[in-house]
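Appendix B. Chain record.
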Amino acid sequence: MTGEADAARVTQDYYDSADADTFYERIWGGEDIHIGIYESEEEPIRAASRRTVERMAELVADLPPGTRVLDLGSGYGGAARFLAENRGFQVECLNISERQNRRNRRLNAERGLDGRVRVTDGDFENVPFPDAQFDLVWSQDAILHSGNKDKVFAEIARVLRPGGTLLFTDPMQSDECPDGVLTPILERIHLRALGSPGLYRELASGVRLDEVAFADYSPHLPTHYRRVGEELGRRGADLAGEVSGEYMERMLRGLGHWVEGGAAGHLCWGIFRFRKAAGPD
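Structure tokens predicted for this chain:
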């Protein structure tokens, strides 16, 4: 299994591939390539994925226009554009995939958002911004790709201003998950372990990030992966010539493992909210 030092490179190589780029843009959710919150079992993936953005944005509705946001693992920038257009926030996107970042910049330009959404190539274990620069750090289903999550949390705490908010989602293993049952998933994403609610609470506490709330949406995880698998099965022929058959076959197997893990209660997912302690360390 991939070592911690290689996790960023593996992630970049994967998301920069033409197969992955086409799959995520055409099947997964368009601008929003993360897990959705579903109102029905058959709801379109894009609608459910956008609902996650909306639900998270409701949790920071008290922040004023001009709020400075860092979106870690921003993908195609759907959340960043939503926050800029609907909340008047200034958003810095930090993302490791150059291919995704090019699309993000193009979509920002098409929407006239170049001045409110900026995109930087990089990873969240080495955030290229000064201390205490942001009012809000936002991340959706990205932290799992790090093999050094304690460093990620240290970087988040460093760039947040005192009193600032961390708001994120991440596919996690449950705190009660038995050893070994997630091996097929971990092998697929080239990591030794997923985060868990308990781990994230411990890491946050260690860098003086106080938990505000955790909204548990775990049932939506297997629903989302099932819906993505159904769409890929239904539309796979349309992607022939754009996405390799080998990639689609491996993706369908991988999606099935996520569905199984979620249905068994070995996986969880939800919205975490933390606040950086005010005052001196």
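Further analysis of this model is presented in Appendix C.
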